[in-house]
Design brief:
Elements (H helix, E strand, L loop, with lengths): L18 E8 L2 E8 L6 E2 L4 E7 L2 E7 L2 E7 L4 E4 L4 E6 L3 E8 L4
Antiparallel strand pairs: 1-2, 2-9, 3-8, 4-7, 4-9, 5-6, 5-8
InterPro entries: RmlC-like_jellyroll, RmlC_Cupin_sf
Protein name: Cupin 2 conserved barrel domain-containing protein
Length: 106
């Protein structure tokens, strides 16, 4: 891989929902561009996760103390899932999302 590159996120479309383009691995932390038009599944990562909407809109659902909450994220919005945060992303149409998380995190 070259030392630097330009990635035009709007040009990236995966073959399947939640397909990803690996951008970087920063000492065990991955940076990936995801494309999706389908919801993910409820899950808890084994570390923190940063979720940045680059294109489209996403309804992020998460649980705090047993209560389900929802927040609508647009271009430029960031969702931080702390350790133990149960969450699921529901795109509202096609979306491109930058995800930063521990390598191998579910």
């Amino acid at each position: 891989m070259s030392a630097s590159r330009v990635i035009r996120c709007r040009d990236f479309t995966a073959e399947r929902a939640w397909g990803a383009l690996d951008i970087a691995n920063l000492d065990g932390t991955t940076v990936r561009l995801h494309w999706t038009d389908q919801p993910y599944v409820w899950h808890v990562n084994d570390g923190q996760e940063v979720f940045v909407v680059l294109d489209g809109e996403v309804e992020m659902r998460y649980r705090e103390r047993g209560d389900e909450r929802r927040v609508r994220l647009g271009v430029g919005d960031i969702f931080h899932a702390g350790v133990g945060c149960e969450h699921v992303a529901h795109p509202l149409g096609a979306a491109r999302i930058l995800v930063v998380e521990r390598e191998g995190s579910a």
